[in-house]
Amino acid sequence: MKIRYWLLILIVFSSTVFAQRQKKHDQIGVGVQLSLPIIGLSGIYKVTPQIGVQGIIGLVSALKFYGVKGNYYFKTRMIYKPYVFGMFGSATYTLGNSSDSVGAYGLGGGVEYISNNIGYGVEFGYGSFDFESLDTSVSSFIVGVGLHYYLQ
Question: What is the pTM (predicted TM-score) of this model?
Answer without folding.
Answer: 0.76
